[in-house]
Amino acid sequence: MVHLLSMLDFIQSLPFAQIAAATADARRYKLSGHRLLEAIPEAMPVMEAYEDYQRRQTALVALAARIPSP
User: Fold this and answer.
1) What whole-number distance in Å separates Cα of residue 65 and Cα of residue 14?
2) What is the pLDDT of residues 3-32, one digit of tens each?
3) How far apart are CA 34 and CA 32, in angstroms?
4) Cα distance between residue 48 and residue 69, in whole Å
């Protein structure tokens, strides 16, 4: 339960306005994600949030795999 609540808190703290701006810039300049980070430093929090999300998701999937099926 703690992992799920932690993921919920994390999702609620995501910088959605920055994500939208970085995505719009990427489309406008036709940049890949990594190139976007090099060109627009303000996009770095988006990448850090994505990496943190991936770590949390992996932990939750591993936890769910250990729960026996009914």
Assistant:
1) 26
2) 778 878 877 877 778 777 777 877 787 877
3) 6
4) 34
